[in-house]
Specification:
Shape: globular
Strand order of the largest sheet: 1-4-5-6-3
Number of helices: 3
CATH superfamily: Hotdog Thioesterase
CATH class: Alpha Beta
Distance between the termini: 26 Å
Structural class: alpha+beta
Helix content: 10-25%
Strand content: 35-45%
CATH topology: Thiol Ester Dehydrase, Chain A
Number of domains: 1
CATH architecture: Roll
Largest sheet: 5 strands, antiparallel
């Protein structure tokens, strides 16, 4: 399986994701980022949730941030673009770009960052940071600088 540094997918905004002003509620952006991360992991052959026979690790978020550029509304078609910004021994930092695809040209609606830490979940009562399993880390690479500046 190839090494990956990015993942993109397209979805449509649902009515339930909007607020009284008809604009996507800010809390949904975190869901979009998480959905992209889960799909990214599946694209490299893993699940974000440990398989019974795989490494017993979890991925809690330690940082999430957004900058909003343009509002998104019901039935807007959007592209969520995940980029691996940093890969360390125990953590992964992502950059995200959310683009509105409705018009002639894609419009940047929001940017975001998220950092996750790999933790051992052998004991569900005590998480402890651990090294990312080699079989997972070997399939992830940092995106090229020109993509990260994008």
């Amino acid at each position: 399986m190839a090494v990956a540094c990015e993942f993109k997918f397209v979805r449509t905004i649902e009515f339930s994701e909007t607020d009284m002003a008809g604009i996507v509620h800010f809390s949904n952006y975190a869901k979009y980022l998480e959905s992209a991360e889960h799909r990214f992991f599946r694209s490299i052959g893993y699940s974000i949730v440990s398989a019974p026979d795989g490494p017993r690790v979890g991925w809690p978020r330690v940082h999430v941030g957004f900058d909003f550029k343009k509002p998104l509304r019901f039935e807007d078609e959007i592209e969520i673009h995940l980029l691996v910004a940093e890969l360390r021994s125990k953590s992964i930092a992502y950059q995200f770009r959310i683009r509105k695809l409705n018009g002639n040209m894609p419009e940047l609606a929001a940017t975001g960052t998220m950092t996750v830490v790999c933790v051992s979940i052998a004991d569900r009562n005590a998480m402890k940071a651990c090294t990312i399993p080699k079989d997972i880390a070997s399939k992830i690479e940092v995106a090229p600088t020109e993509l990260l500046k994008g």
